[in-house]
Amino acid sequence: MNTEKTPLVSVRNLKKHFPITGGFLQNQVGAVKAVDGVSFDIYPGETLGLVGETGCGKTTVGRTMMRLYEPTAGEVELNGVSLTELGEKDLRKIRSKMQMIFQDPYASLNPRMTVGSIVAAPLDVHTKLSKKEKHDRIQELLDIVGLNPDFVNRYPHEFSGGQRQRIGIARALALEPELIVCDEPISSLDVSIQAQVVNLLEKLQKELGLTYLFIAHDLSMVRHISDRMAVMYLGKIMELAGRDEIYLKSMHPYTQALMSAVPIPDPDLAAKSKRIILDGDIPNPKNPPMGCNFNTRCPIAKERCFIEDPEYREIEKNHWVACHFAEETRS
Q1: Percent of the chain whose predicted confidence (pLDDT) is above 70
Q2: 34 DSSP 8-state letter
Q3: Which of 7, 19, 20, 298 has a C-alpha 20 to 30 A away from that of 166?
């Protein structure tokens, strides 16, 4: 992926802190730092994979980018337009350019609406198509995602999980967006269906020139679909690089531990690989550790790591790491 061109999306120092209230008057007594200073770019036509353990803030990054959550601080730009500064009216106009595929196809589709109504919802809000034009567009979208166009009058409960996710994809495509945030779109599906949905997403990307932020915790699947990968831990990005760089030449101790957990099909190679087991649990995001977020579990942590937050820096071209001693840890 050529990262010399202009990014479609630029995220700079994005933060989302959820307030914690307590006491008789329910005053704010703290905050959960779900996203705490995240920066990255996504380039036209690429897939950026965002991975990390459950609760690290991946989904919150996607929702805050889309302004489904209001950011606490930071900036998000789409095609040079600052989304964080837009008012509600202007934001509605640009919303057609960015859509989201949600994790749970059982929860993200209204059970009282037909498939046709669900797919038509974005068209009702953002376009002035005639009834026939809308009907034709809905049938076209169902056909694109591999569903029978005659299913427009059926309800979500009449479909399998994989089919429901295809309905969600059709809805996301309705307004011809440039960016789609895929929030763990395959995690609730059977393994046999996961490959079908990922293949569909890849096919649509080639045909329609889509750009994806692909949020997931299945490292093998993310390696398959992504051009670049960002690894999150406790609200921050630890490492960002090309997918093969991440897998073969990761520099952050956390990334190295994650990659060592990926199953290797070849038993001879698997026997030679070194499994890195991390001690302890993820700290509470209400009270993250001082210094580096990873210092409580890091096998190479030194005194500096407990005092100073590491700079998120470009160590090699297009390879960013947040670690004081990244140069010493090359895998």
Answers
A1: 95
A2: E
A3: 7
Mean pLDDT of 86-109: 88
The pLDDT tens digits for 185-200 are: 988 788 888 889 999 9
Q: What value does the mean pLDDT take over residues 269-284?
A: 73
pTM of the model: 0.90
Q: By CB neighbour count within 10 A (0-12 exposed, 13-18 middle, 19+ buried), where does 132 fall?
A: exposed
Spell out the SS3 assignment of 154-183.
CCHHHCCHHHHHHHHHHHHHCCCCCEEEEE
Whole-Å CA distances, 181 to 75, 103, 109, 136, 171: 17, 11, 17, 26, 13
Residue 329 has pLDDT above 80, yes or no: no
Quote the CA–CA distance of 152 and 141 in Å, as a whole number.
Answer: 11
Q: Are 39 and 11 within 8 A, CB to CB? A: yes
**105 CB-side CA count, 13 A:** 29
CA distance 33 to 235: 7
pLDDT at 1: 44
Torsion of CA 240, 243, 248, 251, to 10 degrees: 0
The two most distant CA atoms of the chain are separated, in Å, by 68
DSSP 53: S
